[in-house]
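name: query_chain
kind: protein
chains: 1
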Amino acid sequence: MTDSRNSTEVKTAALLSTLVPAEDGFPAAGELDIPGAFAKDVAADGNEALVEQLLKALPDDFADQSDANRENVLKSIEADQSAVFGSVLRHVYNAYYTNPTVREVLEKAEGYPARPPLYAGYEMDTFDPESLTVQRKRKPFWRKA
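structure:
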């Protein structure tokens, strides 16, 4: 495979596209610009070692294999390392379904709005700390732990 990206990036893109292939108007995960979102989601949970473990379990020629072979490799890894596989898959889904392109496809297909879920079209007033004056004067009415 001639690709200017390094082997880890190529393997990751193949992994993403195998886990979430193109289907019914949805793009494959590896075709999108989600590696950054994927890495950020992984880092937020401190799961970099799990991703590294999964990538090391993939054969060097994983990206060059057929879709069926890649699926079989991942099924084998899922059977042997189910916790690792499940964690990585969750991060892939988080990155995929928050991608603007995927959200647009969802909106067209299902009518699910491709925007943040709350306060669409509503402007919130700037918070006024003075509105808490009365509460601050009250004695606590809860038990301290």
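note: The helical segments are 7-19, 35-44, 48-57, 67-80, 82-97, 100-110, 133-137.
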